[in-house]
Amino acid sequence: MSSAARLSPSAPGTGAGGHDDRKVPPVSDMARGIGLSVPAASLPDVVANAVLLQGYADLLAGFALPDTCEPAYEYTP
User: Fold this and answer.
1) Mean pLDDT over each residue of the chain, to the nearest integer
2) Residues 6 or more apart from 56 whose CB is under 8 A from it?
3) What average pLDDT score do residues 37-44 get?
4) Non-local CB neighbours of 27 within 8 Å, separated by 6+ positions
């Protein structure tokens, strides 16, 4: 099991039993496009992390903010 799956067992895009219903991103093609080499041993975890991050990105993209929301001008953690 990958680190990403262990950190977030109910990650978006992950079905029952750890089966992912969504298409696996073409990680090797994306890495080659930016001149990055991903070792074969790391590829399963990199793919799992890409799927996890895409699920969170989809969640954020689906969150509609009305035009009446006040902008956050200053961020203080």
Assistant:
1) 75
2) 11, 12
3) 91
4) 38, 43, 46, 47, 50
